[in-house]
Here is the input.
Amino acid sequence: MWLLGNVLTSQTVLQGSSAAQQAVSQSMNSLWNDTLNSTMYNGIAEIGVLFFTGTIAIFVLTWVKDVFQDEHSPVPWERWILLAVAVALLANQGALMKNLTFSMRDLMNATNQKVLQSSSVNGMTLISAFNQISSGTGVQSWYNQQVQICQAIPDPVKQQKCLDDAKTLAQQFAQQGGNSNLLNQPGFLSGIGSAIETAMVGLLLALAVAIQWLVEISWILTAFAGPIAVGGTLLPVKQKSLFAWLIAFYSIGLYQLFFNILVGMVAMVMIGANNLNSLVFAVSVGLLSPILALVLAAGGGLATFTSLASIGGAVASAAISGGASLALGGATMAGRMAAHPAMRRLGSAYQNNVPANVRKRIRGRVRDATTPVFSKK
Here is the structure.
């Protein structure tokens, strides 16, 4: 769910901006559903299954080789768990994988929306601050265009009437958009601004919208590559492709969140300073915020990947040390039991009261019963 809506450049766009933004959101949802429910995704899932079949063969050969080289080698439980997870995700043409992808996207969007609506400063949320500044920027750009048109009128009387009518309409647009407080800001609707500045504002805001759409499409493509990433999970490499895919999917969601927070904070700064500068806002939204959000999301994804690797290493180390401690504790307990006076008296009674031939038969039966398990060296 992107924060940035359409740029308001005329009365029609201004009045229909909410419907246009909702239409874009519905279009993105339809694109997600159509893409992941298409035959193309089923074909990608089949490729992932074929890839997974090859990695299973490599996994089995590696495991058998390790067993023959060292019959006391530990069982690679983490690999068998990954094997079960991959089989479940790729079964039925990746149905579970598809549902997991939709659930992850819904979770990221819900988190994004909750942060934007709950982050309140002076009674104003980030999304409301951005909507107010973006709407005011659109009104300011429209008014600057009308001023340039009116200044081209040679008749001074008609020119002044054109300027007055444009200012009246701009004030109405600001009130309709809930931006009546911007009318009191110095410089708002001043008409100061060249055609180049107005064009740059429109270009930068359009660039921000295009970047957001491309990032959303990149998110879809990342989801599209999920079955192939699952298929390569069993490759004998340190970094598992499934975890790398999860981090990539998560990083794109972080990019959306960071971008929305950045532009919302910029809008709050402008509202708090009572200074609406359309060019500064456009540069922040269309140029600087995408770059900063990309850096932050990349750092957050890398930190998450490193944390997962550290957690996995810690769990494995804990399991190994725990097993060794358990074995050592068992051996210590067995030694203490053998050294206990009661156990020594029981052994002495067994030696003194049980005939030698009976003890020999008991040892023979115990040896015969345990030979298949504990072979002689």
About this structure: The radius of gyration is 35 Å.
